[in-house]
Amino acid sequence: MKQVTASAPGKLIILGEHAVVYGKPAIALAIDRRIRCTLSEAQETTLNGRPFEPGKHPYLRSMMQHGSGPVRIFTESSIPPGSGLGSSAALSTSFLKALNTLNGIDKSGKELATDAFLTEYEVQGRASPLDTSASTHGHGISVNGPEDAGEHLWDIVMNDKTWSVRDLRVPNMTLVVGYTGLHAATGPLVEKVRRYKSKFKFADDIIDEIGETTVDGMKALKERDLVRLGDLMTNDHKLLSILGVSCKELNKLVNASLKHSYGAKLTGAGGGGSMIALTDEPEKVCESIALHGGTPFVVRTEEPGVRIE
After folding, report:
1. Are residues 134 and 202 part of one domain?
2. Are 102 and 39 in contact (CB under 8 A)?
């Protein structure tokens, strides 16, 4: 019986979440936490040894409705769901890579990132290709950054928006993740920003400022100026808070981290999930996060993208 295993990394968004949905730039780094999907041919579809229930697994349902036959699915994840670390993108990317390989289809790069993005878009109602491009390519990427941001990888188009994805080289950095323990689904938060933007003109100005902050962050990364990058991260958190996607738990962990960090901010959709801190004192940051009710862990960057194992 043919069997295929693929894995894909989670990601951190350093700058630009939510604004990237509206075509603004963003920066994402793949991290050393991955989701693995093992698929094999079967008479009926099962998930981790149980009958597959499509209503409970919208991402898998979306990917399987496009002509997939029955498969036995096993998943393994080191990414907390709803943590803002790209668990749905890593699932979509690794599952599609395994399914394509099982069916003798060779897709990678732009094709795979686009297919995974379309799954995210269908399930969430509105999304950007940032997470799925980061899971596909690995390492670091910028979306809609200036031409000198890095080597061009691919463009992804949806309706009237185009996202240009570039390889982004970053200095060695230590990042501490603080997980609130609160599950935060991406779709409702993206919709919350859309409603906010439709009602209040100044929300457009906030989204524009997030975009400008992200471009400044790309320059800071290129110049290896971690002090400047940290300041920009903290300011980005304030802007996202104005958009209403932070919460008291995230704010508490961000504030607790700042004493021993260059900067800190929520990462991902917000509303719970995780924050990140850029620091040279990870032990002290981890201690502060734990004392304020979060679950801390240190992550490594420069993680490779999706792969067959």
Report:
1. no
2. yes
With a CB cutoff of 8 Å and minimum separation 6, the contacts of 74 are: 37, 38, 39, 47, 48, 49
Task: Classify 116 as helix, strand or coil.
Answer: helix
Number of Cβ within 10 Å of residue 223's Cβ equals: 11
Q: Do residue 165 and residue 179 come from a single domain? A: no
Does residue 102 belong to any structural domain of this protein?
A: yes
pLDDT of the chain, 309 residues: tens digit per residue? 799 999 999 999 999 999 988 889 999 999 999 999 999 999 999 999 999 998 999 999 999 887 678 999 999 999 987 777 889 999 999 999 999 999 999 999 999 999 999 998 888 876 778 899 999 999 999 999 888 888 999 999 988 888 899 999 887 788 999 999 998 777 888 889 999 888 888 899 999 999 999 999 999 988 989 999 999 999 999 999 999 999 999 999 999 999 999 999 999 889 998 999 999 999 999 999 999 999 999 998 889 999 999
Do 164 and 185 lie in one domain? The reply is no
Domain-terminating residue out of 149, 169, 189: 169
Q: What residues does 27 pair with on adjacent strands?
A: 15, 142
**Residue 307: inside a domain:** no
Catalytically active residues, by annotation: 131
Would you say 245 and 18 are in contact if contact means Cβ atoms under 8 Å apart?
yes
Which residues touch 102 (CB under 8 Å, ≥6 apart)?
Answer: 2, 3, 4, 39, 40, 41, 71
Query: Which one, of 17, 22, 1, 13, lies nearest residue 204 by Cα?
Result: 22
What token pair was written down for 127? 């999304």
157 and 190, same domain (yes or no): no
The dihedrals phi and psi of 2, each to the nearest 5 degrees, come to: -70, 135
Q: What is the number of structural domains in the chain? A: 2
Do the Cβ atoms of 33 and 51 come closer than 8 Å? Answer: no
Q: 98: closest CA among 66, 133, 74?
A: 74
Say yes or no: 45 and 64 in one domain.
yes
Please tell me whether the overall predicted TM-score, pTM, comes out greater than 0.85 for this model: yes
